[in-house]
Specification:
The chain has four helices and no strands. The protein has helices at residues 5-53, 59-97, 99-107, 115-136. α2 (59-97) crosses α3. The longest helix has 49 residues, at 5-53. The chain is elongated, with a radius of gyration of 22 Å.
Length: 137
């Protein structure tokens, strides 16, 4: 037997709710990932400064930490880029399904989003910092 209109509407509403919850979850995951990488970068920077403050004989250790900082920053960029592409796909689906969400997105200035800054600019600045620290050590 076919399903009633009410059942079909309930199924569609449940699917929409799952998509919205997934969108919120992915947004939360992005900020948690960013926080994790920022804390890791901060700890590496403290270790680097501590090693340099202890004298010239520990210079190779500081260089290893700076090199690891570069590698971890490349990982941060990779993870962020993959997330960015996935989140944009979810956002397109949510925009198509929720007219209120689409309307909200049109209210912001054209082409403006802070997400690329978080995904690309922060890790790029960290990579630049590690490269400079590696060169000067």
């Amino acid at each position: 037997m076919g399903e009633s209109t009410d059942e079909a509407n309930a199924r569609q509403a449940a699917a929409g709710d799952r998509l919205w919850q997934h969108c919120l979850h992915e947004d939360n995951v992005r900020y948690q990932q960013g926080n994790l990488f920022l804390v890791a970068q901060s700890l590496l920077a403290v270790a680097y400064a501590t090693i340099l403050a202890s004298g010239d004989r520990n210079l190779p250790s500081a260089q290893v930490i700076a090199a690891f900082g570069i590698v971890s920053t490349v990982g941060w960029l990779y993870v962020g880029h993959r997330y960015f592409k996935y989140f944009r796909a979810i956002q397109r689906r949510a925009t198509a399904l929720f007219s209120e969400y689409a309307e909200t997105l049109t209210c912001r200035p054209p082409g403006w989003s802070s997400l690329p800054l978080i995904v690309y600019a922060l890790p790029s600045f960290a990579a630049l910092m590690w490269i400079v620290l590696l060169v000067i050590s």
